[in-house]
Request: fold
Amino acid sequence: MLVTVRGLVVGEVVASDNAKYIHVLTAERGKLSALVRGAVRLRGRFTSSTQVFCYSEFVLYERNGKYTLDDASLIENYFSLCRDYDTLTLASYIISAADYLSVDEQPDAELLRLTLNTLWALSHREKLDRRLVKGAFEMRAAGLSGLAPDLTACRGCGKREPDRAYLSVMDGCIYCPDCMAERELRSRAENDIRVDELRTAQILLPLEPPVLMAMRYSLYSEMGKLYSFSLDGKLVPEFAAACEKYFENQLDHHFPVLDMLNLSPPEKD
Reply:
């Protein structure tokens, strides 16, 4: 049976001297793995449409739940992401996260849309602060995966606009300073590591009000306007660190590509 889908190539594994498997993130069927023959050669018929960062239309032959590529046509590629090391590394992180979060044969149009929008922003809006792009992607991806933190109000007293908030990474919520002080009094310490009543280590991150607003925007804004916010340069590191810490701890997974990423502020005109 032939199946036609549009999808983004988020990974590939060489199968032989003349074949490879590609991981394709699609809207209709989630992630698919397909065997591509002849794509390893530089001038192979499907080389230009089956590389990582390619968004293409694929005609797949399905048999017993396995797919083999029958035809492919390129819709858009994001090879311009290779213009510099940091942009390429960040883009590699984005598709690694999309690959990790996607589920085989489970429709996920929003994750695909988020990933494509992020790659487009990195490709076409060079003046964007890539630290904001990374953090906003992490927050939105967490939300799409059912792991969104509750940033609407303090978990303890319900205050919606605290003078300063504390993000509880493990609990996925925020506390105001007063409720945070009350937690401090109830907590116990062991070897200078704070632990809760269940003797579980906690990660509590202070957030300035603009950082909290930026995290809320990342979670709740329209997808098409996700990267249309700004933040004072002095607060960007706090935002970026909080989003990354939350994303990795909620997934309980470390992406090795992050060890190679060291984003700097955008250059001023």
In short: The longest strand covers residues 2-16. Residues 150-210 form one domain. Residues 194-199 have pLDDT under 50 and may be disordered. The CA atoms of residues 162 and 265 lie 28 Å apart.
